[in-house]
Amino acid sequence: MKKNIGVWLDTEKAYIITIEDNGARVDKIESEIESRLRFKGETKAYSRMGNQFINPATKITHKRRHQLKHYFENITDHLSDAQEIYLFGPAETKVHLAKHISKEPILKDRIRKIESEDHLTEKQMIACVKKVFDQKPIKVNVRIRH
């Protein structure tokens, strides 16, 4: 039984579209990535805590990186038994997920296509994934930089 998976994602949510012989199934994963962190009293590029001035940029960057890693691990848990994977979505998050997948020894050679798509309904996502997997595969050796 052939199992192909398409993943539509942005930083807020991911839809995992599983195409099997008996039909299609859509699972939704909510992300826990915070879009903008603000500290109370923050008005400039630095924050004030008591009589100290701190720059929260590195702390925010590390926190966002950790949240992205956790989000990608939740998604890759659903991809373990896929024969081929199709990544699509409106933002750069799909490229970051492809980098994360390329580090996984089980999944690294299973990405079939990465494509930019706008916001779609669930039925449009299913149709898009079916269209990609109905086409003849083109094998291209691509190196994803880490």
| Number of E-state strands | 7
Q: Could you tell me the strand content as a percent range?
A: 25-35%
Distance between the termini: 33 Å
Low-confidence stretches: none
CA radius of gyration: 18 Å
The global form is: elongated
Structural class by secondary-structure content? alpha/beta
Mean pLDDT: 85
Largest beta-sheet characterization: 5 strands, mixed
Please give the count of helices.
Answer: 3
**What topology, given as strand order, has the largest sheet?**
3-2-1-6-7
Order of helices and strands: EEEEEHEHEH
Fraction of residues in H or I helices = 25-40%
Q: What does this entry look like structurally?
A:
The structure is a single chain. The two termini are 33 Å apart. The chain has helices at 57-78, 93-102, 122-134; strands spanning 4-9, 13-20, 23-30, 47-49, 52-54, 84-89, 111-116. The longest helix has 22 residues, at 57-78. It is an alpha/beta fold and 146 residues long. The chain has a five-stranded mixed sheet, with helices on both faces. A two-stranded antiparallel sheet has the order 4-5.
